[in-house]
Amino acid sequence: MNRDRIEGGFRNLRGRGKTALGALAGRPRPQIEGAIDQAAGALRHEYGRAREHSEALYRDGEHLYRETRERGEALIGEARERGRHIRHEAGKRGRHYRHEAEARGRALVQRADDNRGTTLLLVAAAAFGLGLIVRGRR
């Protein structure tokens, strides 16, 4: 409860008292003043309620902002960590494939060196076939 609600409530009660006393005394002026105080007190009380509500909304908004910011920072950190992990895994796989290709290439060179005649015949046949394809029809 804030000061506006308290003071508005007291002014409303004071206005009711004035209105009642004016009615008992038969005097219209205190009755009118009491009615004005009642209305002003009710308005101030409602203003206090609205202010409390707006302050609560403001606090909730700040809380949501902080929570959203914290979650966003956590997601950024998680994304960075996943990116590092993916980069590390890609590097491992790349090294593995490079080593595998080098080993297969060495094995192919060794096999070609062991079978020189067959290799020469296959290279010549491939070159002849490629020449026919490139030359085209006339």
From TrEMBL:
Gene3D superfamilies associated with the record: YjbJ
Keywords from the UniProt entry: Membrane, Transmembrane, Transmembrane helix
InterPro entries named among the record's database cross-references: YjbJ_sf
Keyword Membrane carried by entry: yes
Membrane-spanning parts: 117-134
Protein name as catalogued: CsbD family protein
